[in-house]
Amino acid sequence: MSRITHTSPLRAIQHTVTSGNLYFRCASSIPIDIGFVFVVRQYGHEPLVFRQKDEPLYLSILSYLGQIELLLEKRELLGDAIYREAKDGLDLKIDRLESRINSIWEQLELLDKPTQKDYLQQVGMSHMYPKASNHLFAEDEEAQSGSSHYEQLGLLYQMYQMAKNIQDNLCLPDHTYIAYQLALLYQCVNQQDSLFDPYKVRIELEFEGIRVATKLPGLIQNIQSDWLYSLTRDLMEFITKVFGQQIATSNLVQTMSNMETFFLNTF
To answer: Which domain of life is it from (predicted)?
Structure first.
């Protein structure tokens, strides 16, 4: 016998009990003592950002940011060298407060948890405490800047090494893969800024002829071989000349070569 089809219906609703902002309807004719009805708090007009149990944690972050703001202002006033010890003490306190903020952030249960920087900007804390916010995220910005710097080094090395490989392969008895290597070199050049536009144009003008010439096994024409050698030589010299002091190309190439040799011998 199915319960859902044979259970008797609920009795008619006769009482409505009001408690706080919510209304409870009872399917019973027995009077209800309102004194025993608990009060339910509503958050209908509040954003769905954090749970109620996280409120003390957010207040702690707000408090720590205010303390960091005051300590940073105090440190700015201690500009003379004679206050070095006092400034070191302030830095220690600031570091401790930062650690507490990071620890609290890990405990928060946010929906689609954003980064600390994005969240502080969204809720306006970064405007309330600008010095503290800038201090908190200064290291992140430096790390991102350093990351992009090494990414640029990698792209330059890749382009330099690809040009060198084309030069080396011109000495081989078969140039079948030269067009493919030239296409890879073009991709490397295309990822750079406008300084490399002349080399990009040079490849675009000659690529189709190189591609057709390498459809069959064997050597490409001498004029095409000379053009490839001239292109790669000019590109390598340009990288060394313009970025030599910044990236120390020779040391970079040697280091990367050593790394490649190590991994090849190890794995």
So the answer is: Eukaryota
Q: Is residue 155 part of a domain?
A: yes
- Domain interval for residue 235: 146-266
pLDDT, tens digit, 9 for 90 and up, residues 37-54? 445 555 555 444 444 455
- Tell me how far apart the terminal alpha carbons of the chain are, to the nearest angstrom: 69
Do both 87 and 158 map to the same domain?
A: no
Distance from C-alpha of 32 to C-alpha of 60, rounded to nearest angstrom: 42
Residues 256 and 151 in one domain: yes
CA 54 to chain centre: 26
pTM more than 0.85: no
Q: Can you tell me the distance from the alpha carbon of 232 to that of 181, in angstroms, rounded to the nearest whole number?
A: 12
- Asked if residue 171 and residue 197 are part of one domain, the reply reads yes
Tens-digit pLDDT profile for residues 120-174 = 666 666 667 777 777 776 655 444 444 555 667 778 888 888 899 999 888 888 8
Residues 63, 57: Cα–Cα separation, whole Å: 10
Instruction: Say how many residues make up the chain.
Output: 267
* Residues ≥6 apart with Cβ < 8 Å to 171: none
Q: What Cα–Cα distance (Å) separates residue 83 from each residue in 77, 78, 87, 155?
A: 10, 6, 6, 46
Whose structure tokens read 């003379």? 80
Distance CA 205, CA 239 (A): 21
CB-based burial of residue 247 (10 Å sphere; 0-12 exposed, 13-18 middle, 19+ buried)?
buried
Domain count, the chain: 3
